Each structure stands twice: as C-alpha cells, then as structure tokens.
Amino acid sequence: MTFNAYIDGLGLSAEDADHLRASFQTWDDLHAWLEENQHSAIQPKPERISVATPSLNISWKDNIWRRFRRSHEPSRSIRQPAGWEKIVEYRRKVTLALTLVTTVAILLLSDYSLRAQQMPEITIKIYLAIYGVMTWFLAANFFKLILGTWHTLRGPRNNPWHPSKTAREPRPETKVAIIFPVYHEDVARVAAGMAATWESIETGFSEYCHHFDTFLLSDSRKLEYNIAEQSAVHRLREQFPKGRFFFRRRPVNLNAKLGNVTDFCRRWGRKYEYMLVMDADSIMDGHTIVELLRMMEGNERLGILQTNPKPVLRRSLFGRMQQFAARLYGAVFSYSLQAMFMGNASYIGHNAMIRMQPFIKHCILPELPGKAPWGGKPLSHDIVESAMMARAGYEVWFLPELEGSYEEIPANLLGFLIRERRWMQGNMQHLRFLFLDGLRSVHRETFLNGSMGYLAAPLWAMFLIVSAYGMVHFLSKGALFIGSIRILEMPMAMLLVSSLVFLFMPRILAFAVHVSGDRAREFGGKDKLALSLLLETIFSFFFSPIMMIYVTRFVWLWLKRRGISWGTQQRDDEPLPWSECFRHFGWISVAGVACWALLVYAVHGISTGRALVIEALSNKWVSPDDILYWFFPILAGFTGSVLIARLTSLSVGLDWSLRLFCIPEEICVPQVIDCTMQWETKLRRTLPNVENPEAVIDYAVKDIGFYVKHRPETRVRPHIASRLLPMINSGMQLSGRNMLLALSERTCFDALHIRAVHGDALARKSNPQEVMS
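== Glucans biosynthesis glucosyltransferase H ==
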C-alpha cells in the first residue's frame, strides 16, 4: 500500500518526503516514525503556577457589623494612591451633591401635587418612595454623563495620568497570550476572528509578532465541536506559518468562562506576563493590541486596560438598532465613564489586556457559599475582578478612544433578554461584595448601580400602577375646581420633563456632539442620522415596557431562588419563528390586552357629567380619556410584543440598511472586519459542519490530514484501549462518550482510522492491540 497521502500531510520538505516514501512499507513503519518524530503542536508545554482564591470575607452581615464598629481592615493597596484619585473622588462628590439636590426638589414638588389630588396617604408614601429611588439613580447617571462629557471634550491629551502618556516599547522577552474561551460556539466564526486578529498583527506590526501566542480554550462538551475546534486550529497553523495557535480542552468545564480562564492561568501563568482576554465573537485590530501592550509595559501600576468593543456585523432590524444606539450614545457615555472613573474603571470580561501576576494573586474568585442564584459560581465575575484589581492597588482603565475593538450583540429580542437574565443574576451576586473591606467607593457604587439597573424594572412597574390608580382616583372622586386640573397636569408634566431630560438627554447630547464635530457623515449623513435617531427613539417607547415586564419576571424568579447557567449565546441573524415569539411573548400580549380592558373600564366608569365638568374646567385640554394616551406606549408595547419580537428579528437588505441605522464601520469597513468576513467564508467551506455530527465523526476517523495532525495529541492509555479496542475491532458503533475517549487514546484512534479508510481486512492485519502489547 502507499503512504503518500500521509507523508504529504506531514508538511515536510520535498527531500525528506521522498526519503520517507522509500522507507515506509507497513503501518508499523509509519507509526514508529510518528512516535519518534511527532510531538504535540497545538498544546505547548505547561509552565504551571500555583493558583488559589484570595482570602475574602464575603459575608455581608459580618462586613456591615465590622464597618459599624469601625474595626474593618485597612485598604490592602500595595501602592501609594495616584494623583488622579483625588480628582475622581471630587467629581464623584459633585455628582452626588447635584443628585441629592435634584431628587429632594422633585420629591417636594411631587408631595405637594399628590396631596392636592387628595390621594390616600399610603398611596402617596408608596409613590414617593418609588419615585425617589428611581429619580436618584436617573439623576446620578445624568450628572455623571454631563460632567464626564464636559471633561471629555478636552480629550485624553489633557489628562496627565492617561496610560498613553507613559507607553513604551515592550521588552524583547515580553509574552502575551491572546485567549478565546469558547463553549459550543460557531467554530468558523471564532476561527475567523482569530485569523483576522493575528493577520492584522502580522501584516501591520510584524516586528511585534514574537510577543503574541493565540489560544483557543474550549469548554465544549459535544464531540463534534471538539473535532471542529481542533481542525480549525490546525488550519490556522497551516495558513499562518509564523503564527503560534494553540488549543486546550478542559476535561471538566467547571465554573464556565471563569474556570476556563483560571485553568489557563494555572497551566501557563508562569510563561506569560499579560493575557488579552477575548470573547467568542471578539475581533481586534493589530494597532489596538500593540498600543495596549505598549501602555502596559510603560506603567507597572496598570492591572487591566479595557477597550470599548464596538458592536458590528448585525443584519437583523433589532440588532441594527441596538448596534446603532450603542455606537452613537455609547461613545458619549464611554468617554464620560473614563473622565469620571479614570483608573477605577470596570472590566467587562473581554477585549481587554490583563497583567497576569496580580490577576492570579488577587482576582481568582471563590465559589460563593449558598445555593444559586445568590450563591454558586459568580456569573458576572468580570466587574468583581476589576474591583479586586483596584483593591490590590492596581489601575483599571477604560479606553474608548482606542479604535479597532469589536464584538457582536444579540440579533433579536429573545437573545437580548436571555443575556439580560444572566447579567441580572450576576449583578445581584455583586451585592455580596458591596461591603468588602478595601474596595474603592467607585466600585461599591458600580455594584449598587448594576443591581439597581434591574431592580428598577419592578419599581417602574409599581410606579405605573400607583400612577394610574392616582389619576383614576382623582378624576372619579377628587374635588373639582379650576386649580385642581392644573394640579393633575403638574405630575404629568413632571413625568414628561424628567423622562425627556434623564432618558433622552444622552440621545440629544450624542446627536449634538456628532453633528457639531462633523462626524454625522460616518453615520450616513445628518439627515440619515436624524431619521435613524428618531426611529430608534420611537422603537424604545415600545421596547422598554417589554424589557420592564420581563426583567420584573426575572427578579421574581430570582427571589424564588431559581438560578440560571451561562450557556451558549445565539450569535447569528436567524429570524425568530412565530412559534418562539408566541411561546415567549404571547403571555405579555395577553397581559397587555387585560391592562387595556382594565384601564378602559376604569376610565369609562367615570360619570359623563363629571367628565364634562373636567373638560369645561380645562377648556377641553384634559379629559378622562387622556389617561389612555399617556399609557398608550406602554400598553401598546405589551400588546404588540409578539409582533415586535418577530418583525425586529428579520434581516434587512444591505441597501436599506446602509440608509438607516448606519454605523461608521459600514461606511468605511475596517480591514480587520473585512478579513474576518473573508476568513469566515473560507473556513465554513473547509471545516467540518457541527450541525451534522455523523459527518464530523466520519471526518475525524477518515480524513488523513486530521489523522496525522491529531495523532500527536493522543496518548496511550491501556485501560481505555483494553475496553474499547474489542468493540472497534468487532465493528461496533461507539457512543459519543466512548468515541471521545477513543479519539483521545492512540491505539484506539489508529484502529478507528485504519478500519474507516482501509477496511476490515487491513484492520485485522494491522491490529493496534498487537502494537500495544
């Protein structure tokens, strides 16, 4: 028989290949050569380091008690405070003072208005309590945005503490690991992002190539994903001979991404000084990566440098609107965060460079005691990790001015809500760290704000119920006189003005900044930018109530101790089937119809004579039917939730999309994104398709190229071979678990391949069990 195909798969020189063609006569010759000359190519030798969770007392009861007794531990900072910390604290106190004044003023005015409406005392107290909490957090974010934007207009060049001020060339021995943790992800898309990121470094910054190694860290449990992921790494190594692409699959995927990253730190933490943590859909430009490295090398205080990944590549209407909003408003908000937090910023879990040693020493989080969702593995561990890094005296910077960092966002409403539930549970777990000794005040606020971002949903729901009850109560039973109508109009006007100021000011401010800075053309021009902004704002009126009722349900399930795991996220643009829309949103539509009926019944329960008096006293400016108009966006969002979920999940044509909800990356496509799309097309044609598991397994045992490359990754395990070889030799079909073991055991893998490619006769003649014995 001929071994030419196997020799070609080894990638040898022509002279060496010719020599082997003459020397290989039997399978024993081939296997002997492979045993002697081949070693694992996709998994480097471990350089282990001890990894342990830091000693943390996360009992909030103990921490509160110690703080009241003033016996809490001093800050664990290992370095002297930086000069920017006083400025950050001053800005924080200014925003708190403005927030306090604004909230008190609005509550005093509301109290006067509600009492004039003759509302019951208990209703007034509930209304003011809910309204006060909501106003506080809305005002706090509003003033942070305003003050942060004012400071940001001066740019990072006027910030003497910005990491770019101390950037320097990396030392020759500096090593960075670019890690892509995955779990049952689209293999072709992940590999395309890896390829495009490396190609950007290799073509634009070849002198820095020796600093970077790229790892695909798999937590995938399904056999077909494991095969496709390994095949993808082998393909990348073939396409980029200068690149160093590696693969690691954990035997047990404990603690999801947190455990995956911890496993990497344990195995290779001694080899790398930094790790660039990516997500499955992350893409980064070589210039951005090199700048992060230069900043890290220039300042040993830097623990985490977080870029602002911009959402791209969405084609569904929902995804495009969210992508547009994040790109337009997020730019202003991100710059504000940098000005307000500086080196006390947060880490969002990906597209960030991390200093390995302090991360391993201070940021490996423990399993939280108690049952999920309050206990268990931390789901949103990234924000806590940044707080731990700052607690140890290192700086965490958010760098929105660095272009070239990209990600993908959920393409439909259902995917968005699934992600929000995971984030909600993670943010609720953050409350356990709220009173931990040594934390910065900014991070305590971050924990609290993150939790309140979800608790605001049930508060808003209660606020709407109380508001509707108050209006109906006044119109049906309150004393009517000319001034009373003005009193009714006052809370309506206050609600409208506060909504416009607190909720829509970021939109107005972002639009003004982009128009005044002549950046509107990056969004398709001023007219298209204005129209897209208007349509996205209208959509938000109907989208927000759906978010409110769903997050309220999530909070209720959380209170009932029903947890959720962090599984695979949908990252494609496939439209939601009608069946899924009715299944997940039908109950909201039914609730919307019921609310409509209840409100109409309450309004029409007001006598005709009383309604005529109200219209007469207000010169027909106010009527009981006006309540229906006030609540129309909310109830319309409820009632039309099924239709909204379905229509917004549909993909829109490229020509149409370039006119509306356009982002700068579509007007002028960055090279790294263009490369990602090209690589995805190529890899989709060549990699095995995980949607067909049988074909993937067939590829694993028959493809000669995969056999030659995968064999060094296997090991001789006699206890596995003794159990599985008789099954293989008898032609028995192996189950998923047994097949996974067989593909990892060398003699079993040899037997599977020989039988699949050359038939039973040759398999019996070259029984791998004889080799083993």
